[in-house]
Specification:
Layout: H1 12-29, E1 31-35, H2 36-56, E2 60-70, E3 80-83, E4 86-89, E5 91-101, H3 103-115, E6 119-121, E7 130-133, E8 136-139, E9 147-149, H4 151-159, E10 171-178, E11 185-191
Helix pairs in contact: 1-2, 2-3, 2-4
Length: 192
């Protein structure tokens, strides 16, 4: 008898992929609807990741750095100059403040990112609606408006400060009844 729930998967890789996907969606959206057995497995994984983020969320130093940034005109295009017959982009220096991770926070960031899947956001407004062509979902403007979400930064900056005073119990399971097709017990798993 195994020491874990099989969750209807015949291979461990399929089971791990499902749990990674559910955990990523829970931390990104704040709540998911799934079966009770899956929710209990995801809950333990999510709470461990949140605990890592809570321990390390203040472990950084703020630095001011000077960077070169391309100068842009009113329309947002780069300003170019002619030098010796060549068109060269004009750069200007700007000061920026950045957060530099301490070594333990960097290790925590890498541990979190090694488990979670990458998340990509698409615009919600009507101008950039999805188009379906031959089974492939595409966005207008050649996918330039999609944006990658840094899940580790989201955990350190948004999720961890909410739970800094708690010592555990970051999630809640609420029963919502049986599923219509196979009568599996469905639950709502959400961050407290």
């Amino acid at each position: 008898m195994p020491g874990y729930r099989k969750l209807g998967r015949t291979t461990s890789s399929g089971r791990k992929a499902m749990l990674r996907n559910l955990t990523t969606n829970l931390l990104y959206h704040g709540k998911i609807t799934t079966t009770e057995a899956r929710a209990k497995e995801v809950r333990s994984i999510a709470e461990k990741l949140i605990t890592i983020a809570v321990k390390e969320h203040t472990n950084y130093e703020v630095l001011t750095v000077t960077t070169k940034v391309a100068k842009k005109d009113a329309t947002g295009k780069r300003v170019r100059e002619k030098i010796d017959g060549k068109s060269v982009t004009v750069f200007e220096e700007k000061e920026q403040t950045i957060k530099k991770d301490e070594p333990s926070r960097l290790a925590a960031r890498r541990k979190i990112l090694s488990y979670l899947y990458p998340v990509t956001e698409a615009p919600d407004n009507d101008r950039y609606k999805r188009k379906k062509r031959k089974g492939v979902t595409r966005f207008k403007d050649n996918n330039r408006l999609k944006r990658k979400v840094d899940m580790a930064a989201k955990m350190f900056d948004e999720i961890a400060p909410n739970y800094s005073t708690r010592t555990g119990g970051y999630t809640r399971i609420v029963r919502i009844g049986a599923r219509k097709g196979d009568a599996a017990e469905m639950v709502l798993l959400e961050l407290v």
